[in-house]
Write a structure and sequence with these properties.
This protein is mainly beta. It contains three helices and 47 strands. About 35% of the residues are buried. This is TonB-dependent receptor.
Length: about 850
């Protein structure tokens, strides 16, 4: 613990010192303002429409030329079409001048800058007048960064994260600052569960079903505005999948192996020609993982001696999943685009587990032993279709979009359980039992939304939209016990269950933002109508009333001198109980640790406040936030002993929960070859539950730190290090954001989660003249320290649990890129012609 504190303090002090010492002249790339020097990729696009100022009719056959700003030399040119449209593609990055002339009209000059962050530039409807000289319009945008810090959003471009190569979205999020992922894939931000989106929409996919190689970036919105869904205690995590729009043909193939019988392979391709942009990718990921765990419980029963129960488990999981995605964009004209994409995900897994349970008396003499071996096979399929339309206007930043998404999933699980019953001396007391389980489930999730953005002044805009979502889920769980005498399989109606549920959310929002000088403001209001209905064993449940909820948000910002900014914001959010928390069915899968839903659960409501300060240097970024989060009716769990040596965990609403803390993020380009990102989150949580007329409270302070380092070495080597330290923290539920859908870790006001630390190391070597071939070697959890531990304590029992999954893994991956170059990976070939428009190939 002291060593981790010392390391963190030294790094923070070191980074703060280099702010004043680092070079303040040129940015990486060799040119002021961050514009890369030398030859650049040709993936830019500039377009617009020419109109007669007096009649409004399009002007055909006008001459439009693009010139270099530096020396006015010609880059390329064309004549306008019959509808007045012009469109330039395959443009290099940098500042240009658009020269527009036609007989009888005054020549127009417009300045335009194409950058990696803004490859498409719309010059709008350009009106040509005789004898009138128009002023040039100037637009300058910044460079894309691997890590972009904003007051309201943080964007992590994870395609350069070496430690997650060949893994899944879970591995990606482990290395994102401010995000904590436990060994079950449950995700937390600021010690609470965020809402997980994929491409801006809720998804039925789990994090383990999304390959890391398909992810372009992760957006973290800690305090969303009214434009976003109100669901989620700590904001939104949006996973953005890769989608290329480069002209021509380009793509990548990749393959890798890892220790412990693991392998992966993937490929993607993008083809853009004329009005059509087609993209596709495919990934396969297969692995074998082991797990082990221990749970030790001490029971204090009034009038009885203390007793003990010890459980130990060992498990092995084998399986594979495949991820396929294809889609296209059709550019109807310069301002109308239709997009269609289809995802198909399939997986098959086989799990085996040995569970040993020993019950002992007050002297810890074994009284009874239970040996259970289970074998299960799990299969799932997911199909997601997305259709979108986008219309932009000649007025800058004015747009109208409409999106439709439909996702259908089905799954099945077959399990066999063999159990032996022994006495304390190891002798058989009861005949062995055999039980098998058959489960089938399906779900449908659909959403339809439309958004409109209209600038109302130079800095102001009005946004409004509508959205509707629909989810339908059903499951049929059957359990059969085999009679030892007759060999007949008998249906067990006590353990079996069949249930289904349906939920609908209808929402509308309005947002208005503007600025007065250096002061900016935004106010919004979202209304959501939530409708839920469930059925289990023929009994229907409607625990929530269809009452609309209002969710306001307010943002205030003040820009200061020397690239500084302050912001204060507020939002109200909701976290609704899911079906598995609501149904009163009791899960006897582990008879010693039973679980049961609560149909009387209420939604939890959170009021979130955040104050932020951001400072930007030429090669450094610093963001500090302090936040306060008050939650009423917080959904938690409560565990109590039943039947002597068994435990029952139920879902309950806490009276209240208050969380407050501070988050510090530093991104430094310390030297030309070394960049460092450090994130520290300090938080305090207070939780109170009133159950069975007993008051239960828990509170505690904790902190999380992540350090991501990248060093550029000679001979095209890159070395990355990712270190994370999580201190002890009070246990909070992880519903809604987990990597495995409805799974929840057994947490409550009674528990404390033990801290851990982990270190990942990666090194990459680029080959070939254009660095098209790369070899990456990764060693995750170098010291094998990533594990889960928790302590529970009440007046009637205390429990200590430990679980570990395979985390020390070595991976070797090889990738090859082809087609159009990527500015971060290739160097453009020289002498491609006077206008620099030659195609660039990686082979």
């Amino acid at each position: 613990m002291k060593l981790s504190y010392n390391i963190l303090a030294i790094l923070l002090l070191f980074q703060l010192q280099v702010f004043a010492q680092a070079p303040q002249g040129k940015r990486p790339g060799g040119m002021p303002g961050g514009m890369p020097g030398g030859n650049m990729p040709q993936i830019g696009r500039v377009y617009g429409k020419l109109l007669d100022a007096s009649t409004g009719k399009p002007i055909e056959y006008a001459s439009v030329a693009l010139l270099k700003q530096q020396d006015s030399s010609l880059i390329t040119g064309m004549l306008t079409q019959g509808n007045g449209d012009f469109n330039f593609e395959k443009l290099p990055f940098g500042p240009m001048i658009a020269r527009i002339n036609f007989m009888g009209y005054i020549t127009i000059y417009k300045k335009v800058t194409v950058t990696p962050r803004a490859t498409d530039q719309d010059l709008g409807n350009i009106k040509m007048k005789p004898n009138v000289k128009e002023l040039a319009a100037v637009e300058v945008t910044g460079q894309k960064s691997d890590f972009q810090l904003g007051i309201d959003k943080k964007i992590f471009n994870v395609d350069r994260n070496l430690s997650s190569v060949g893994g899944t979205a879970t591995d990606v999020l482990k290395n994102v600052p401010a995000v904590n992922v436990d060994i079950d894939g449950n995700v937390k931000v600021r010690n609470a569960s965020p809402t997980i989106f994929v491409d801006g929409r809720p998804s039925t996919l789990t994090l383990d079903q999304i390959p890391a190689d398909a992810i372009e970036s992760v957006e973290l919105i800690t305090n969303p505005s009214a434009k976003y869904d109100a669901e989620g205690m700590s904001g939104i995590l949006n996973i953005v999948l890769k989608k290329n729009k480069k002209a021509g043909v380009n793509g990548m193939i990749q393959g890798g192996i890892a220790t412990g019988e693991k392998y992966n392979g993937s490929g993607n391709i993008n083809i853009r020609q004329g009005k059509v942009n087609f993209f596709a990718n495919y990934s396969i990921n297969a692995n074998r993982n082991w797990g082990r765990g221990e749970t030790n419980t001490t029971y204090f029963q009034p009038g009885k001696d203390t007793s003990y129960q010890d459980q130990s488990s060992n498990s092995i999981s084998k399986g594979s999943f495949q991820f396929g995605r294809a889609g296209l964009d059709y550019f109807i004209d310069n301002r109308n685009t239709i997009s269609l994409s289809q995802n198909i995900v399939a997986g098959n897994f086989k799990n085996t587990e040995d569970l040993r349970t020993v019950s002992s008396n007050y002297n810890k003499d074994p009284l009874m032993e239970n040996l259970r071996n289970s074998i299960s096979e799990f299969e799932f399929r997911n199909y997601t279709t997305q259709l979108g339309w986008k219309h932009t206007y000649a007025k800058p930043k004015k747009e109208w979009t409409a999106d439709f998404s439909l996702s259908k999933s089905n799954n099945s699980r077959d399990g066999d359980i063999y159990t032996d019953y022994l006495d304390g001396a190891g002798n058989t007391t009861l005949p062995s039992s055999f039980q098998y389980q058959r489960t089938k489930g399906s779900s449908t999730f659909g959403s339809l939304q439309t958004d409109f953005v209209n600038p109302v002044s130079e800095n102001g805009k009005l946004e409004f939209g509508l959205k509707g979502t629909y989810r339908d889920y059903s499951s049929d769980y059957k359990v059969f016990d085999r009679d030892n005498d007759s060999g007949e399989d008998i249906y067990n109606d006590r353990l079996s269950s069949a249930y289904k549920y349906n939920e609908q959310i209808y929402a509308g929002y309005v947002n208005f933002s503007n600025s007065i000088g250096n002061f900016g403001y935004q106010a919004g209001l979202r209304a959501e109508q939530y409708i839920y209905a469930g059925e289990s064993a023929g009994v229907k449940y409607k625990p929530t009333k269809a009452v609309p909820g209002l969710y306001p948000s307010v943002y205030l910002s003040q820009r200061l001198k020397n690239e500084q900014e302050l912001q204060l914001n507020y939002s109200r959010r909701v976290n609704r109980p899911n079906f598995f928390q609501l149904i009163p069915y009791r899960d006897f899968t582990d008879p010693y640790n039973q679980r049961e839903g609560n149909p009387n659960l209420k939604p939890e409501y959170t009021n979130s406040f955040e104050f932020s300060y951001m400072k930007t240097w030429k090669q450094h970024n610093f963001l500090a936030s302090v936040y306060f989060r008050n939650t009423n009716n917080m959904i938690s769990t409560y565990t109590e002993p039943i039947q002597g040596d068994s435990m029952l965990t139920r879902f309950v609403n806490a009276n209240r929960s208050n969380s407050y803390g501070a988050e510090l993020t530093l991104k430094n380009q310390l030297f030309k070859i070394w960049s460092l990102t450090t994130n520290v989150n300090l938080f305090q949580t207070d939780l109170s539950i009133n159950t069975n007329n007993e008051q239960s409270q828990n509170s505690g302070f904790s902190w999380l730190a992540k350090i991501n380092s990248e060093v550029k070495l000679p001979w095209n080597f890159t070395f990355q290090q990712n270190y994370q330290y999580q201190a002890d923290a009070i246990a909070l539920p992880s519903s809604g954001g987990g990597g495995r859908g409805y799974m929840m870790i057994p947490t409550s006001t009674q528990g404390t989660i033990k801290g851990y630390h982990t270190l990942d190391l990666s090194i990459k070597k680029d080959f070939l003249k254009n660095k098209a071939l790369s070899v990456t070697l990764t060693w995750s959890d170098v010291f094998d320290t990533r594990e889960f531990g928790m302590d529970l304590a009440t007046a009637s029992y205390k429990q200590s649990s430990y679980r570990k999954r395979e985390s020390e893994i070595g991976r070797l991956n090889i990738s090859y890129r082809f087609g159009k170059m990527d500015m971060q990976l290739f160097k453009r070939k020289s002498n491609k012609g006077e206008n620099g428009m030659g195609d660039i190939q990686a082979f």
